[in-house]
Write a structure and sequence with these properties.
The chain is α+β, with helices and mostly antiparallel strands. It has one domain (about 15-20, about 30-165): Glutaredoxin. It is built from six helices and nine strands; from the N terminus they run ββαβααβαβαββββα. The chain has helices at about 35-40, 55-65, 70-75, 85-95, 110-115, 160-165; strands at about 15-20, 30-35, 40-50, 80-85, 105, 120, 130, 135-140, 145-150. Strands 2-1-5-4-3-8-9 form a seven-stranded mixed β-sheet.
C-alpha cells in the first residue's frame, strides 16, 4: 500500500553518515528511528532512485539546497533526501553536492523504509535492483500533509519548487 496524504509515516529506520562527532552521535554511519526524528517537526522529504545518478545530482538535490532558506522561512525544520544507498555513499554524495548542514542525506540501503512507504520501484532492467520512485512529501509531526510522486522517469512534480508552492 502506498502512503497517502493524511497517513502517519510508517515506523522504520534510516542511516546517515555523521561528519562531526557529538555526544549524541558518533562519527560515521548512525541509524535513526524515523518516528523519533519527525516528532514535533515539519520536514520536507524527497526520495530519488540513487546517489550520483544524473537527474538526482543535476536537478533534484541542487533544487532543495538552493531553496533551503525559503523552506525554513515557511516553517520547515529539516530537509531530508532518502535514497536506496548506504550511509557511506549518501555521505560522500552529500559532500560532493555541498549538502552538509542543509539537506540530511538519509540512506535506506536495503530499501526497507522505501518499501514501507510503498514507493519502491524495480530498476533491475538498469542493473540497479530495487530503488525508490522519485517523490517529495511534507510531514508535520509524522503526518503526511503533501505528497508528489513522479510518473515513469519524469521530473515534474517532486522538485523543490512544487513542494515550496504547496506550503
Amino acid at each position: 500500500m502506498t502512503i497517502k496524504i493524511g497517513d502517519t509515516l510508517p515506523e522504520g529506520t534510516l542511516s546517515e553518515f555523521v561528519e562531526v562527532e557529538t555526544e549524541a552521535c558518533s562519527l560515521g554511519p548512525n541509524t535513526f528511528n524515523v518516528q523519533d526524528l519527525v516528532k514535533g517537526k515539519k520536514i520536507a522529504i524527497f526520495g530519488l532512485p540513487g546517489a550520483f545518478t544524473p537527474t538526482c545530482s543535476a536537478k533534484h538535490v541542487p533544487g532543495f539546497i538552493q531553496h533551503a532558506d525559503q523552506f525554513k522561512e515557511k516553517g520547515v525544520d529539516e530537509i531530508w533526501c532518502i535514497a536506496v544507498n548506504d550511509a557511506f555513499v549518501m555521505g560522500a554524495w552529500g559532500r560532493e553536492q555541498k549538502a552538509t548542514g542543509i539537506v540530511r542525506m538519509m540512506g535506506d540501503g536495503n530499501a526497507a523504509y522505501t518499501k514501507a512507504l510503498g514507493l519502491d520501484a524495480d530498476f533491475s532492467k538498469f542493473g540497479m535492483g530495487t530503488r525508490s520512485q522519485r517523490y517529495s512529501l511534507l510531514v508535520e509531526d509524522g503526518v503526511v500533509k503533501q505528497l508528489n510522486v513522479e510518473q515513469g522517469g519524469k521530473f515534474e512534480v517532486s522538485n523543490a519548487e512544487t513542494l515550496l508552492g504547496q506550503l
